[in-house]
Write a structure and sequence with these properties.
The protein has 365 residues and is α/β, with parallel strands linked by helices. The chain has 13 helices and 13 strands. Strand 4 and strand 5 form a beta hairpin.
Length: 365
Amino acid sequence: MDSVPALEFKPNLPEVLARLRRWINREAQGEIFAVLNIRTRALEDFAARYSPGYCPPPTLEDRLQFWENHLAERAALEDDSIPAAYLSEFDQGLYGALVGGVPQYMAHPENGWISSMVHPILKDRSQLESLRFDRGGPVFRQYVEWLDSFVARAAGRFAISHFILINGMNFLFELVGATQSYLLLYEDPEWVRRAFDLAHEVNLAVQETFFEHVPLLAGGTASNMVQWAPGRVISESVDPFHMTRREHFEEWGRPVLERIFAHFDGAVLHLHGNGRHLLEAVCTLPKLLAIFLGDDRGYPPAVDELPRLQKISKDLPLVVQVTWERFQEKLFRHELPGGVLYHVTDCPGIDEANRLMEKVRAYRQ
């Protein structure tokens, strides 16, 4: 087992990693785990400077400073979180920009992220053959520069989370938009497969480069989805199949995921509220370590559906979101299913969070 380094922003890192290791290895089915989210001054400052919506491209120093300040304020939290910066600036737009797209940025005051996307790149699908991915180009060089700068700033203090892949159908959305992507599955499936090959090339290069430049944490990957997982672990998405039948995922999603998973030690996924019909299918993916179950308007909160969902996922580790009040209520009533990492929102403060964590650590289903 790899030694556990000291992190200034997580004094109890050895204990937290030991708990997360048991959870991700499916050795803690009777225990519960919790990430407790407080409103930091860094988030308040971000919200004062940014309104929700489009914003100018962020500067490297601004993002470095945000994450340093935000994670420093959480250092006294004794929850199951790993202090890790998430490079949201690259979470979508990077992939499209690497083949000629122009990123647009959006601010998210609720969590301090600045995300990116691109308008559909191709005006005609015949242009696919002209797209070139250049690892030596300015977009990829900037990506590497940001990775190295974050690694230098984080050293000994916090970690750097993996970030989402934009692969397969997600990449197709960036090329031609969502509607055309679905139509092309029927109108020109061979073109789709060629586009998927380009997507695989780009995603593999982005993720391999991440792990070449970002050191592992105690032999594992810091994760905004699951906090930590052993080995080189990627974060994939099946969002386009949330609006399709399972058969479409099996034909067009599974091969893409299994192909990219083969290059790494493991993977995590997230499912939105309208994608829970895919749970049984994705649970059979080789190397899948855990699933983050998101909540969306119009669908029951995942925390309230855990008994049903765990019958499907069996012992696969799950992550769900829950408010502070709801979490306390279920905790005190002993109604929290074990083997789950709970992302708790709206925590009133560090002292209250740490008192609650004593009960979380003692909880047994």
